[in-house]
Amino acid sequence: MRLAGSIHCSFAAVLLCIAACDAGVSHAAKPASAPTPAPVPKNARYKDASQPVEARVEDLLARMTLAEKIGQMTQAERAEARPGDVTALMLGSVLSGGGSGPSPNKPESWASMIDAYQDAATATRLGIPVIYGIDAVHGHQSVIGATVFPQMIGLAAAGDADLMKRIGEVTAREMAATGIYWNFSPMVAVTQDIRWGRAAESLGEDAATVGTLATAYVGGLMAPIAPDSAQILPTAKHFIGDGGTAWGSSRQSIMGVQYRLDQGDAQGDSEALLARYLPPYKALIDAGTGSVMASFSSWNGDKLHGNNALLTGVLKERLGFKGFVISDWDGIQQLPGSFEQQVTTAINAGVDMAMVPKDYRAFVRVLTDAVNKGTVPQARIDDAVRRILRAKFAMGLFEHPRALRSLQAEFGGAAHRAVAREAVAKSATLLKNAGALPLARGKSIFVAGEFADNLGFQSGGWTLQWQGVSGNGEIVGTTLLEGIKQVGGATTAVSFKEDGKLDGRADVGIVFVGEPPYAEGVGDRDIDELALDRREVSAIDAMRSRVDKLVLVVVAGRPQLLDKVIDKVDAVVMAWLPGSEGAGLADVLFGDKPFTGRLPVGWPASAAGYQRADAPLDMRCASLVWALGYGMDVSGKALGPGRCTR
Ligand code: GLC
């Protein structure tokens, strides 16, 4: 609610007063007990960048009031909090949720928006910069014109650590161009069940691969961007066990979709679960990752957001994590009890910063009350703030809080897109080839399927919008069909009809099938829902009768069931979710680049026999048509032993 405010106050002052009053943390009339904080000397030690980080942390912490400390622990969403709120409540962080950004959606608008928050933050007594967070999970894909990389599952198929590092570097530069230095990425779930709507965001089912590739990516994200730049802060998420929940254990329902796995419950012997899910976190912490996001999911029935044994006992004490834990989107409010009880439980369990997009004022109020009552110890507040300040000092945010507009010239440029095109080619995974590939230039090619010419479909979720988009209106890039035309060149006759009912005949047909975009549990599917739909089977049948050789290309963030069509096609290529640079697929289809992709997850043979990755190995192997690690080159040579020696 916004009051009219008195006509003689400036608008900003009115906002300050309203925001403060809303928070119940009045700045206008201080309670008698709260002493007026001392003015900050210009030569305060924390302001001296030559001082050691820990010395700066302790100097600043000692100067902070409780309100300033709790403000640092509070993250609001940009659509809910104005710069004036940042000043009034001394907020430590602001985020963009999926699809939440300025209009027009272009780099300069983002830079201006975030610099306004920084101006508001540095106008506070202590001048602590805000840290602005976003999901730049396959490139800085919230911004129109950004380079959109393949989703992580495809990068896992590529299995190239040097490429991961370069993708991290490009992502960091496009983020810095907009003034954003905190990436809620990488997700280091070890995916046990491809029915999970977040399998596409993961680096697959093998913990060692997840750790190796995520570490390389974080190395790129944290690489120096420019002499006058802050460093990106990566986030290891979602701690812990988000990729191993039991089918049907989720209580969440969003957009009318009952989640079945996402935000569910990981069940089993705790040490055995830790042995599977903890290694990627250790790897990322050892690589210097400064933030960890708590998982919505539970661990043997205990919500991670309130789990002291895991957030503090395992993450902070056993692994020695010195960064800070951020809660997930209103994840605190999924805990039992009143909001004050939820906040108390989460902060005492080890959450250091609360992602409370709308409820940030209430959060400040109830946490202040909890500290004043002693239900949240002052020492816990100081520990949380110490961790947050440590991250902000270490990444150079105090010295370089603003957007690097000089990088906007390269934003989404050819050099960045070349890295993405390389990633598309390296992620493509060849699973069957009976003389259909490589394509020959100068021949005739028929193309079909709704995934052939749709940038939104080939990018997947977390692209411009939380749930992704359809069509070619906003994403800047090259569709898979356009790529085939470009790489095939003038001598290759390419014809496209979505249903495959083209006139005449062609040497080769390519049918694109897959899954339209989704994100999180909205993408939870039962195994039989991963079969091709009627229209896709119809397009394959239509094409079969019109071409000599038929290639099936799957555009999805996880395996699809092909048992009904595998004998109808001469080749199968898994393109994953390639993102904006669709020509990268044509590079391997025409043999300009070799197929190198290998499966980061096993591929189920059918719905009937489906087994999760954590099933007993013999049962798991018997359920797969292609095992973890399988892939072939165009000559038919296997690129590595599938994990199941059958
Ligand atoms: C979402 C996701 C998390 C993301 C956060 C902010 O619900 O679970 O991965 O980083 O909210 O968008």
From TrEMBL:
Region listing for Disordered, in residue ranges: 29-49
Alphabetically ordered keywords of this record: Glycosidase, Hydrolase, Signal
Keyword match Signal: yes
E.C. designation(s): 3.2.1.21
Signal peptide start-end: 1-28
Domain of life (superkingdom): Bacteria
Enzymatic class: hydrolase
Regions annotated as coiled coil: none
Entries under InterPro entries matching the protein: Cellulose_Degrad_GH3, GH, Glyco_hydro_3_AS, Glyco_hydro_3_C, Glyco_hydro_3_C_sf, Glyco_hydro_3_N, Glyco_hydro_3_N_sf
GO molecular function: hydrolase activity
Residue intervals of the Glycoside hydrolase family 3 N-terminal domain: 65-390
Catalytic activity: Hydrolysis of terminal, non-reducing beta-D-glucosyl residues with release of beta-D-glucose
Gene3D superfamilies from the UniProt entry: Glycoside hydrolase family 3 C-terminal domain, Glycoside hydrolase, family 3, N-terminal domain
Pfam families listed in its UniProt record: Glyco_hydro_3, Glyco_hydro_3_C
Domain Glycoside hydrolase family 3 C-terminal: 429-632
Family as reported in the entry's similarity comment: Belongs to the glycosyl hydrolase 3 family.
Protein name (record): beta-glucosidase
